[in-house]
C-alpha cells in the first residue's frame, strides 16, 4: 500500500500543470495495455488517482450515507462473510493488493509521461 501512496504522491508533486495531460493517451512502459483504458486520457487518470487516494486515506462513507442499492448489497455481503470470514478476508486483501498494484502502475505511467511531455526526462518533448 505504501508503494501506491508513494507513486500517487510523486505524481501529485510532479504534475504542476494537469491540463497538459488532456488528450494524451496512456502508454505503458512495458507495453502491456490494461483492459479498461478505453477512451481515458492521462488527465482522466490523474484526477481519478487523486480522488481514489482520498478515499483510501479517509475510508468509505458509513452505510447510512451511501446509495440505498449499494448499502443493501453490502449488507447481503456481510451476511455471507459471516459464514467464512477467513476466506473473505483473504479474497478481499488479495483483491485490494491487485487493485493497488494496478493503480500504482498507472500513477507511475502518468508521472513518466508528464516528465516526457515537459522534457524533464532527457528526451524530446511529446509536443515536438
From TrEMBL:
<protein>
    <recommendedName>
        <fullName>MID1 interacting protein 1</fullName>
    </recommendedName>
</protein>
<comment type="similarity">
    <text>Belongs to the SPOT14 family.</text>
</comment>
<feature type="region of interest" description="Disordered">
    <location>
        <begin position="65"/>
        <end position="85"/>
    </location>
</feature>
<dbReference type="GO" id="GO:0046890">
    <property type="term" value="P:regulation of lipid biosynthetic process"/>
</dbReference>
<dbReference type="Pfam" id="PF07084">
    <property type="entry name" value="Spot_14"/>
</dbReference>
<dbReference type="GO" id="GO:0005634">
    <property type="term" value="C:nucleus"/>
</dbReference>
<dbReference type="InterPro" id="IPR053719">
    <property type="entry name" value="Lipogen_MT_Stabilize_sf"/>
</dbReference>
<keyword id="KW-0539">Nucleus</keyword>
<feature type="compositionally biased region" description="Basic and acidic residues">
    <location>
        <begin position="72"/>
        <end position="84"/>
    </location>
</feature>
<dbReference type="InterPro" id="IPR009786">
    <property type="entry name" value="Spot_14"/>
</dbReference>
<dbReference type="GO" id="GO:0005829">
    <property type="term" value="C:cytosol"/>
</dbReference>
<keyword id="KW-0963">Cytoplasm</keyword>
Amino acid at each position: 500500500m505504501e508503494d501506491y501512496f508513494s507513486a500517487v504522491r510523486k505524481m501529485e508533486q510532479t504534475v504542476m500543470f494537469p491540463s497538459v495531460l488532456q488528450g494524451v493517451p496512456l502508454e505503458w512502459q512495458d507495453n502491456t495495455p490494461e483492459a479498461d483504458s478505453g477512451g481515458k486520457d492521462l488527465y482522466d487518470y490523474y484526477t481519478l488517482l487523486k480522488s481514489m487516494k482520498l478515499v483510501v486515506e479517509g475510508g468509505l462513507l458509513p452505510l447510512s450515507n451511501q446509495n440505498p442499492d449499494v448499502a443493501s448489497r453490502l449488507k447481503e455481503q456481510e451476511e455471507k462473510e459471516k459464514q467464512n470470514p477467513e476466506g473473505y478476508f483473504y479474497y478481499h486483501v488479495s483483491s485490494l493488493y491487485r487493485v493497488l498494484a494496478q493503480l500504482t502502475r498507472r500513477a507511475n505511467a502518468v508521472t513518466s509521461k508528464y516528465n516526457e511531455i515537459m522534457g524533464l526526462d532527457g528526451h524530446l518533448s511529446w509536443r515536438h
